[in-house]
């Protein structure tokens, strides 16, 4: 008995089963754990119903995974890309109606939700995070730092919350639609800390993470917050994900948890939001979402060990020294973020390890039935396996090592996912691409082929949402119609229509390459000759004016030469749109009239409204076609008789309607543009040629990256398209003029600069914000082993002349996916004038600088009696590429002068292409 007592166990204690002590230990361990979720949401601006279902689905999946905290993307209810629609009261009204519907359901019972939504407080609109638990609003947290650079204009729509850190909360008047559901008339408004039963949580919102002094620093250090939640609307840009990883590692390196949610997909504009939801603990990742995906909802759930955070902070000797007494307001949250025990442990006491039960929710009135939000038709990923749920109760999630895609892989994934969203949301039936056999159009075709590959992979993996969209687009059922594609190549044959538009100046090589590529990817391909179209234009001019324009090689002027080149390019654009409207009718193989009648039946009264836009009736595909062999287009009467009034709109304005076709997923084709970012920067394209289209997946990608992508796609382990190797090896050429004594027309020779040099010019102009003079100084250093100072000066001046001369073309450029940091798109990203002066002062300063450098080099060469063969690097130190004498010369007064004309460079290469 004494021995027993010495152990500290009395008779009453000895009867307690040993397992209970183990369970008590597990309970203590479990109280330091937190089960949390972040998500990628494929939201669409103003799609309130769809956005609501995706938000609701993400909460449902998070709860099923045992999560107690769910963080959504920025402005997830209306969609981030609403732009000036945020200025409309309807946008806010419908957003809060969706939130009211969410609060009326049981989805927020037992889970703390962070939801992005706009809100009006004291007559100002704020970009907010709304914290909800048990059908009640706990806090409305406004954004404190606006994103106003490059692609973003948030201050145009929202006010910035400018109260100092620790400012008291204000009273927010809850919209009537919400108060009717919850009975809640007000809620706290401001920056605060949410004190849960076992941890503390606070918010950041997108741009705040990127700011010089992000709020999380003070919240972590001064407020003692352990978990920061950030809802993002962060767009894709080449290699940008590495920067995000770095920011989260740095933010949590001294102890803390950072939860990052993001939007994914195309939400109606030029941006692709690349998801990558993640959870970072003490500088290491324990949860990572996909960067590119066709899933509409992806939930990433992890179990955190908060003891690791507390231990890391306790080990910091400087933490107490730097902490400031900032009295952040707090909101008490009656919930533990610890994971509840799974069904396997249901024999445990009912209060063991559980947070606030749904049955005791303060926001739920007695006798009220639990509602359920409608999440039908929404596919989601992120549900853990039963085994993972069991371990999540007592074990923290393991560390995950992030993997970064190569530039080539990003060129494949980003545009492909953006195009899929564009296709399925536009109501179109496929794509039309003028395929020239060159690198740019081949890259666009390859991106579409890759899109088809990932779409079919999603279908094969059982993604019902992708399958439903594909069936709607094709007008075919997988389980019913024999013509449903079996693989990516068959899908490409049904979606992508390519056409080689030859002239007398086109080569057999490019015709062959276009046909080879079409065959290997499986597109529906045509080869046409358009000489009769261009001849018709010149004939009209000649008959009216007597002028017979000739190419320069035939004795004509450069003005005539450029006009003849441009009419070829512009004719291709007009023909492309013409064929994009009619090819679905041609491929209907006699079904065009039936499709027309079905479309008419969809309209009220069964008649076509006057003035409706003419578009093709059917996108039904030819089941017998396969591969990408060149096919001869059937005559117009293949779908509907040319003499039939329904074919030409003679019957009461009766023309086919895009709306009816779009409702069933059949109809017009989207015309794809093929101009790259370097051509846009230099202006090396014809206004309203192949650069004018419905969308352009490569308009913000450099020529160098496109060629790397083509080499990558040619490899068997990637896409296995061998024809791309021949495309890459062929020098870029427009093929718009006759050859002069066998000399090939090449892009780089006509531009007066290489594509590599254009990349330098573009990055220095946009990313480094260099004008002509600053760019010259930078390149004198970077290119000192490549060119002499005078040649560098000539190249920089030549670039800025062409940039200024052609900037007007960017005002009409096709909407392109934003990819590159030096994108010259002036719609949002690169706002510049389109009427420029002659840079007289800038060029004169550049000439003086180069002259001083050359004189100094001559003096040194004379002093050492050495021939002047090169310019020593001492004249171009990295800290100051000018040198002492050159720097002194810049302070001299500069006389006014007219436009600078360089005799060596002249105005060579200033075509209108």
List the helices and strands and how they pair.
Layout: H1 2-6, H2 11-14, H3 18-30, E1 33-41, H4 48-64, E2 69-71, H5 89-104, E3 112-121, E4 124-133, E5 136-142, H6 154-157, E6 170-173, H7 176-182, E7 186-189, E8 193-195, E9 200-205, H8 207-210, H9 215-221, E10 227-231, H10 241-252, E11 257-265, E12 273-274, E13 278-281, E14 284-288, E15 297-305, H11 306-314, H12 319-322, E16 330-332, E17 380-381, H13 386-392, H14 407-426, E18 431-434, H15 439-460, H16 464-474, H17 488-495, E19 496-502, H18 508-521, E20 524-529, H19 531-545, H20 558-586, H21 592-602, H22 645-648, H23 658-663, E21 670-671, H24 677-682, H25 703-714, H26 723-729, H27 747-751, H28 755-766, H29 772-782, H30 789-806, H31 840-863, H32 884-889
Parallel strand pairs: 1-2, 1-11, 2-3, 8-16, 9-10, 10-11, 15-17, 18-19, 18-21, 19-20
Antiparallel strand pairs: 1-15, 3-4, 4-5, 6-7, 8-9, 11-12, 11-13, 13-14
Family: In the C-terminal section; belongs to the NAD synthetase family.
Biased composition (Low complexity): 637-649
InterPro entries: C-N_Hydrolase, C-N_Hydrolase_sf, Gln-dep_NAD_synthase, NAD/GMP_synthase, NAD_synthase, Rossmann-like_a/b/a_fold
Distance between the termini: 101 Å
Number of helices: 32
Architecture per CATH nomenclature, i.e. the level-2 architecture of the largest domain: 4-Layer Sandwich
Mean pLDDT: 80
Beta-strand percentage range:
5-15%
Give unreliable regions as ranges: 1-25, 344-370, 589-665, 872-913
**What is the radius of gyration?**
32 Å
CATH superfamily of the largest domain: Carbon-nitrogen hydrolase
CATH fold description of the largest domain = Nitrilase/N-carbamoyl-D-aminoacid amidohydrolase
Shape: globular
Helix/strand/pairing category: alpha/beta
- Determine and state the CATH class of the largest domain: Alpha Beta
Number of domains: 3
Number of strands: 21
Helix percentage:
25-40%
The major pleated sheet works out as:
15 strands, mixed
């Amino acid at each position: 008995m004494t021995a027993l007592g010495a152990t500290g166990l009395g008779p009453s204690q000895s009867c307690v089963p040993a397992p209970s002590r183990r369970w008590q230990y597990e309970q203590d361990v479990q109280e330091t754990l937190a089960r949390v979720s972040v998500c990628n949401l494929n939201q669409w601006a103003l799609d309130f119903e769809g956005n609501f279902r995706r938000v609701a689905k993400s909460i449902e999946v998070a709860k099923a995974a045992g999560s107690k905290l769910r963080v959504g993307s920025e402005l997830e209810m209306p969609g981030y890309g609403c732009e000036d629609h945020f200025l409309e009261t309807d946008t806010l009204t419908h957003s809060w109606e969706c939130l009211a519907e969410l609060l009326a359901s049981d989805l927020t019972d037992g889970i703390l939700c962070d939801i992005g939504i706009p809100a009006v407080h004291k007559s100002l609109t704020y970009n907010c995070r709304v914290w909800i638990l048990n059908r009640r609003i706990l806090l409305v947290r406004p954004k404190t730092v606006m994103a106003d650079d490059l692609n973003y204009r948030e201050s145009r729509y929202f006010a910035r919350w400018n109260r100092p850190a620790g400012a008291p909360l204000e009273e927010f008047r809850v919209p009537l639609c919400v108060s009717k559901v919850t009975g809640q008339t007000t809620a706290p408004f401001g920056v605060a800390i949410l004190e849960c039963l076992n941890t503390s949580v606070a918010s950041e919102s997108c741009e705040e993470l990127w700011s010089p002094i992000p709020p999380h620093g003070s919240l972590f250090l001064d407020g003692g917050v352990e978990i920061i939640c950030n809802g993002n609307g962060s767009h894709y840009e080449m290699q940008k994900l590495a920067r995000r990883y770095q920011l989260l590692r740095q933010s949590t390196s001294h102890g803390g948890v950072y939860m990052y949610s993001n939007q994914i997909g195309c939400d109606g504009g030029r941006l692709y939001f690349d998801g990558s939801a993640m959870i970072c603990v003490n500088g290491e990742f324990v949860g990572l979402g996909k960067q590119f995906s066709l899933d509409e909802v992806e939930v990433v759930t992890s179990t955190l060990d908060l003891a690791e955070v507390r231990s890391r902070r306790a080990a910091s000797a400087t933490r107490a020294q730097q902490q400031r007494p900032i009295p952040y307001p707090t909101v008490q949250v009656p919930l533990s973020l610890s994971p509840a025990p799974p069904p396997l442990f249901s024999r445990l006491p009912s209060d063991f390890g559980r947070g606030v039960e749904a049955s005791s929710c303060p926001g739920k009135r007695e006798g009220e039935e639990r509602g359920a939000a409608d999440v039908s038709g929404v596919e989601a990923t992120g549900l853990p396996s039963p085994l993972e749920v069991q371990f999540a109760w007592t074990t923290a999630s393991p560390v995950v090592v992030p993997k970064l895609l190569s530039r080539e892989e990003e060129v494949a994934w980003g545009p492909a996912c953006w195009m899929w969203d564009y296709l399925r949301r536009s109501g179109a039936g496929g794509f039309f691409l003028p395929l020239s056999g060159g690198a740019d159009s081949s890259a666009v075709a390859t991106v579409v082929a890759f899109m088809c590959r990932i779409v079919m992979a999603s279908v094969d993996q059982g993604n019902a949402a992708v399958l439903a969209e594909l069936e709607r687009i094709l007008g075919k059922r997988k389980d019913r119609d024999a013509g449903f594609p079996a693989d990516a190549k068959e899908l490409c044959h049904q979606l992508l229509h390519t056409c080689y538009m030859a002239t007398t100046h086109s080569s057999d090589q490019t015709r062959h390459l276009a046909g080879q590529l079409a065959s290997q990817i499986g597109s529906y391909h045509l080869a046409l000759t358009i000489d009769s179209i261009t001849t018709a234009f010149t004939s009209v001019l000649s008959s009216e004016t007597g002028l017979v324009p000739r190419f320069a090689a035939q004795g004509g002027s450069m003005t005539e030469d450029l006009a003849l080149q441009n009419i070829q390019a512009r004719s291709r654009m007009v023909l492309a749109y013409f064929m994009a409207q009619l090819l679905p009718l041609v491929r209907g193989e006699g079904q065009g009239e039936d499709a027309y009648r079905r479309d008419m039946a969809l309209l009220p009264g069964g008649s076509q409204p006057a003035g409706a836009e003419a578009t093709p009736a059917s996108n039904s595909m030819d089941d017998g076609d396969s591969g990408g062999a060149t096919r001869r287009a059937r005559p117009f009467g293949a779908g509907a008789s040319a003499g039939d009034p329904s074919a030409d709109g003679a019957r009461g304005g009766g023309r086919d309607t895009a709306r009816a076709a779009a409702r069933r997923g059949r109809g017009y084709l989207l015309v794809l543009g093929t101009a790259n970012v370097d051509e846009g920067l230099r202006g090396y394209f014809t206004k309203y040629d192949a650069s004018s289209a419905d969308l352009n997946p490569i308009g913000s990608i450099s020529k160098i990256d496109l060629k790397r992508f083509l080499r990558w796609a040619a490899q068997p382990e990637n896409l296995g398209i061998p024809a791309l190797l021949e495309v890459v090896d062929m020098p870029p050429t427009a093929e718009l003029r006759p050859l002069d004594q066998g000399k090939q027309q090449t892009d780089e020779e006509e531009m007066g600069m290489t594509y590599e040099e254009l990349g330098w010019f573009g990055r220095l102009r946009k990313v480094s914000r260099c004008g002509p003079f600053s760019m010259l100084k930078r390149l004198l250093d970077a290119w000192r082993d490549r060119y002499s100072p005078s040649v560098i000066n000539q190249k920089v001046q030549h670039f800025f002349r062409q940039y200024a001369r052609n900037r007007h073309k960017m005002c009409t450029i096709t909407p392109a996916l934003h990819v590159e940091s030096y994108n010259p798109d002036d719609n949002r990203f690169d706002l510049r004038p389109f009427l420029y002066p002659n840079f007289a002062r800038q060029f004169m300063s550049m000439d003086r600088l180069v002259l001083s450098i050359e004189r100094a080099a001559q003096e040194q060469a004379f002093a050492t009696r050495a021939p002047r063969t090169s310019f020593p690097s001492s004249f171009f130190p990295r800290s100051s590429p000018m040198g002492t004498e050159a720097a002194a010369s810049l302070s001299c007064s500069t006389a006014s002068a007219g436009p600078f004309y360089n005799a060596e460079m002249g105005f060579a290469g200033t075509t209108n292409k």
